[in-house]
Amino acid sequence: MTGRRRTSGQALVEFAIVIPIIIFIVLGLFDLGRGIFSYNTLAQSARAGSRMAIVDQRSDQVRAAAIAAAPTLGLGTGNVAVCFKESDSGQTGCGSSADDCPSATREIGCLAVVVVSTTYSPITPVISSLWSSIALTSTSIEPIEYVCPYGTHTTCP
Predict the structure, then answer these.
(1) Which residue in 25, 103, 115, 132 has its CB near the most CB atoms, within 10 A?
(2) For the chain, percent of residues with pLDDT exceeding 70
């Protein structure tokens, strides 16, 4: 019986040592899940924008499609970059004007490049003190399937 009295607080001390670690892991997994969800939503947004761009090359319509595909991220027009590149271009972004495929010479096979970016901010206090924000970017590149002739038609498919 005397051995039992000496260890009566041992479980409480072990619990007090382990519980902060368990809470940190659970909250970290929660933020990791939110981050993955945000990235998947961002990738879906880029794909939706590129699907619009392969049949309708108006940048405002492409941006609107990309923004509408990710309502939970709160994207704006500044988060979506749209450009068109020559089919043999090795560029995967819209930062350079080299290899551009201007609307006057745009043809089937030119590449529609849609780049969507945002920042992810963890909401748990410990994680957000380590990483205040993380930049997320997703790019979707698809070949143009239809060139909309705006001069001859009032609407495009």
Answers:
(1) 115
(2) 89
